[in-house]
Amino acid sequence: MQFDTKIAVVIRNDLEAWQKLNVASFLTSGIAAAFPGCIGEIYEDASSTRYLALIGQPILIYGADGPALSRALDRALTRNVTPAIYTEDMFKTTHDEANRAAVKAVARAHLNLVGIAMRAERKVIDKIVDGLKFHQ
Questions:
Q1: Fold (topology level) of 5-134
Q2: From which domain of life does this come (predicted)?
Q3: Helix, strand, coil percent content, the chain, rounded in steps of 5
Q4: DSSP string covering 38-99, please?
């Protein structure tokens, strides 16, 4: 199935495995919150056990170093795409209010990004992630 939009997550390559998974999870929750229409229907197995609904389209995961991650953020903002972000400082916090305060304390040019996620028209996402490779 071809979607009109793409969801892309860009994760910094040098993170520990648990950090990558944590960042990807938090970032995709931002997509779900901002675009509730991207959530599909609930799942149900043959025993009639119900499960939570998921985002209903593929999520493409890219890897990047710090400068490439910052470039992707700049490209997104230039194209009026509001991304979800995760910074290294957020690993030191324990709740959402502290996460927001950690981001608020740093100017955009100095954010120590470890991940971003965005959803936009396919061609726009392609321009934002141009040059990035899928995460290994």
A1: Bit1 (3.40.1490)
A2: Bacteria
A3: 45, 25, 30
A4: GB-PPEE-TT--EE---BSS-EEEEEE-HHHHHHHHHHHHHTT---EEEEGGGGG--SHHHH
- Nearest 5 degrees, angle CA 28-CA 32-CA 36? 165
Q: Identity (one letter) of the amino acid at 93?
A: T
Between the two ends of the chain, the Cα-to-Cα distance in Å is 24
Amino acid 134: pLDDT: 96
Give the span between the Cα atoms of 130 and 126, in whole angstroms: 6
86 contacts 25 by C-beta, under 8 angstroms: no
| Paired strand residues for 55 | 39
Domain ranges, ordered by start, for the chain: 5-134
What secondary structure letter does DSSP report for 106?
S
Mean residue pLDDT across the chain = 96
Q: Decide if 46 contacts 100 (C-beta within 8 A).
A: no
Residue 59's DSSP bridge partners are 7
| Confidence at 57, pLDDT banded by 50, 70, 90 | very high
Q: Does 2 have pLDDT greater than 90?
A: no
